[in-house]
Structures are given as structure tokens and as C-alpha cells.
Amino acid sequence: AVSGSPRVEGVTNSILLDILEKGAEKGHFGKVVVLNRLELHGCQACGYCRKEGDKCAVEDKISALIEELPETDVVLVGTPVYMGNVSAQLKMFIDRLYCLKDAERKPSLKPKRALLVFSQGASDKAYYKDMMAQVKKTLDGYNLLVEDIIVATGPDYKSDPEVQKKVEHFCSTL
User: Fold this and answer.
1) CA distances from 171 to 38, 51, 78 (A)
2) 54 with 108: CB under 8 angstroms?
3) Residue 133: how many other CB atoms lie within 10 Å
4) Per-residue pLDDT tens for 2-39?
5) Which of 17, 9, 20, 1 is nearest to 116 (CA)?
6) How far is the C-alpha of 160 from the C-alpha of 164, rounded, in Å?
């Protein structure tokens, strides 16, 4: 799971951990990588990945995460909504996925199941739906095929039946 939340004990990370815990009960194991804990660098638009295949010239922890993606069955991506968008940390990760497309802009990654998790302060879950749809479209374009989007509003997501239902449904398909 890739978390764009800087708050380790925040809603985004808590939901990701809940999903991983339920998955572990079924014999599936994973980890939450909190991007904010890593030294991150954004895409340098240097074109190295176009010349050298699906390798990024920037060598940091995002590079290591991207190198793990081919061996991953399911990718969970979570972020709080800040200023109507994903966190800066997640934006850097998404931008760095650029190296996973070839010169013809075709994804080099084999299709992977993916789930998006958003947490937001706005009580209307549809308030940022256009942004969420764009993130889904972007990830889908890299063959991280988003099966569902979970939106948590406020800190008490455990009492939100829709969030719980989506978590349970996704975990039931593992």
C-alpha cells in the first residue's frame, strides 16, 4: 500500500492498515509505505526512462517502490485530499510512474488490481469526484486498474457503513 498521508495515525493510513489486516487474515500480506517518511524526489523530465526502458534516473525510495510493482498482485493507494487534490507526496509518486510507459506511451506494467482510498474534511463524498476520477484514469493508464474508490469523510470512518462495506467487499475478493 502506498500512502500519501503525512499523518501516520491519520484516517488514510488507518484504512489502508485495516485492509491489510483483513487481507492477512486470508493469507495475503503487504505493507504500508508512508511516502512522507521517505526521501522523495519528483520526476526530473530528463527522458532517461525513454532511453533506458522502464528505469528512472532518479535513485531514491520511489524508484525502489516502482521496481517492486511488477511482483505485486494488488496495489492500494491512499491519500488525504489537500486543497482539492492528492497530497504532494502522492503526486510525486504518481509523476514518477511515468517511467512505466514506453516511447509509444503504452504501459510496461502487466495489469494489477488497485484500490484508491481518499480521506477528506468535506462531508459530501462527491465533492472532489472529478479529481478522484482523474487519479483513477491516470492509474488505470499505467495498468494499475482501480476497482473501487473509498472516500472517508471526517475522522470516524469506522462508523461509516459505506466505507466499511467497500473495505469488506474488496477484502472478500482477495
Assistant:
1) 28, 39, 16
2) yes
3) 12
4) 999 999 999 999 999 999 999 999 999 999 999 999 99
5) 1
6) 6
